[in-house]
Amino acid sequence: MVQISDDILKAVPISEDELRQEIAVLLYRKGLPPGKAAAVAGMDRIAFRYLLASRRVPVQYDVADLEHDVATLRTLFPDEGASS
Question: 4-57: per-residue pLDDT in tens?
């Protein structure tokens, strides 16, 4: 665990929550998965996505994510893709 002394925190006008969010965004940009980054920020995933969007941080979404989402949709809606 990283500890930052109170005198350093007092020198910068930022709350503990804001600091956690800054660290989480930085770690997300370095490759930390969004769920874990959201946990670092002390936020749920949706709120963290909004935070990323407000800062114009691109969403990490690769082919594996797409394949997982397609498989989930096929499980949820098995008859939607069937041709008549």
Answer: 788 887 888 888 899 999 999 999 999 999 899 999 999 998 999 999 999 999
Determine the residue type at 77.
Answer: F
- Number of independent structural domains in the chain: 1
The token pair at 31 is 């490759």
- Check the CA dihedral 35-40-41-43 and report its sign: positive
- Neighbouring residues of 29: CB distance < 8 A, sequence distance ≥ 6: 57
Q: Which tokens is 20 given?
A: 């956690």
CA distance 34 to 11: 30
Asked whether residue 11 is assigned to any structural domain, the reply reads yes
Q: Give phi and psi for 2, each to the nearest 5.
A: -90, 135
Kindly report whether the global pTM for this prediction surpasses the value 0.85: no
Residue 13 lies inside a defined structural domain of this protein = yes
